[in-house]
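Predicting holo structure, iron/sulfur cluster bound.
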Amino acid sequence: MQKVITTNPYDDDHLHEECAVFGIYGHSEAAALVALGLHALQHRGQEAAGIVTHDGAQFHAHRGIGLVGDIFADRTVIARLKGNVAIGHTRYSTTGEPMLRNVQPLFAELEIGGLAIAHNGNLTNARTVRKELVSNGCIFQSTTDTEIIIHIMATTRGTVVDRLIAALRQVEGAYSLAVMGQDYLIGVRDPYGVRPLVLGQLGDAYIFASETCAFDIIGATYVRDVEPGELIVVDAEGIHSHRPFPVTKSRFCIFEHIYFSKPDSIVDGTSVYEARKRIGIELAREHPVDADVTVPVPDSGVPSAIGFAAESGMSYDLGIIRNHYVGRTFIEPSDEIRHLGVKLKHNANRAVIQGKRVVLVDDSIVRGTTSRKIVEMVRNAGAREVHMRISSPPTTHSCFYGVDTPERDQLLAANHDVEEMRRIIGADSLAFISIDGLYRAMGLSGRNAADPQYCDACFTGDYPLRLTDRLGGNGARQLSLLAESA
Ligand code: SF4
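Done. Tokens:
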């Protein structure tokens, strides 16, 4: 019997952002606006979503498995989510079936009142802290790392802000949070600011979102980024900023600019689209090709390919057409037709490719499986030569800060040099932007190894935040070993 599975076997050769958050305070249509915001952030997680609201008397919640549009399609669902304050979350689950009890926002009744929390990122000491909490009698409802924040808040004293700060002082890792109670909304970013979080305004209402594209869909204006280590409270008295953590150097995830964020967003104060174009320009300067046409691997390779073509003085054309109607699920094929899988999503445009020397521009190579199939597809469509240019450095290390990455033994670049990778994917040439070129595209003079301004650990092995769970509680020492092995 055929099984229904996700399309991942076909298109999973990318890293996956694991979550998006959205919160609004002070709007009578709060739930509907959160649903729209989550819809704009759907690229950050497609497995499950949820919304929690408060109407002045009680909390309301709805969570489901699937896409935002499906979960909130029934208008009676939004109608039930009454209130002027709301938060929402959309999630990409890393393993197996997503369990409903893990779908955020999480909610708990504390001594200080009900509290809901939505988290983008990953806590790197969650297992260690959880063990301690369980041995002290805490009973967990989910298997998410986020729940430890609620338990620590429940067992400390003071206001909600005091308790949240106390909890965040005990956790390590990456977090951008939207937190709400009956009469407040809080947005907070970890001291390194690994994951994005932006502040916006719609009339008198304040909004937190993972990216600014969520503001555009509801007509809100971008005010500014929540700063690394900043905690902003919105309540009836207005907006209050707290900086409870020691000042550290920001290490925003550079992969947000390369791939995760939507190109129409501004993150980290920079247009994602413009950053990607500049990366393409640097890539062309570092690794020029004598060829006829630049072809993006859609959609994420498009802005970099535009930059690459412009800098190379080469024509740019859509030599690969993407099928936009591939859902997240499909019938698992038999082995005989499995190799056709890549064509579910991409098809070569023979009219552009035939007889040409083609430069394909893509954002990354993870396992190399999709790249190999795309190169083969373009060759079969009549390309004379197929050159591959990648707008990120080789992905040699796993991410532990909120992005689903394979273990190192499955990362092509962790196990092969560029020439071997070229042979494996079957291209005539293969080149990646250098780490310095990437930093130049971000407006810097190159990577300062003593003080890099971004997290770039998946390219360098230089992990800025301790990996306590992963490395047996001795995260700091092990981090330097990982960096040495980079
Ligand atoms: S390891 Fe890579 S994907 Fe993860 S936060 Fe750092 S730069 Fe981003």
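DSSP finds 19 helices and 28 strands in the chain.
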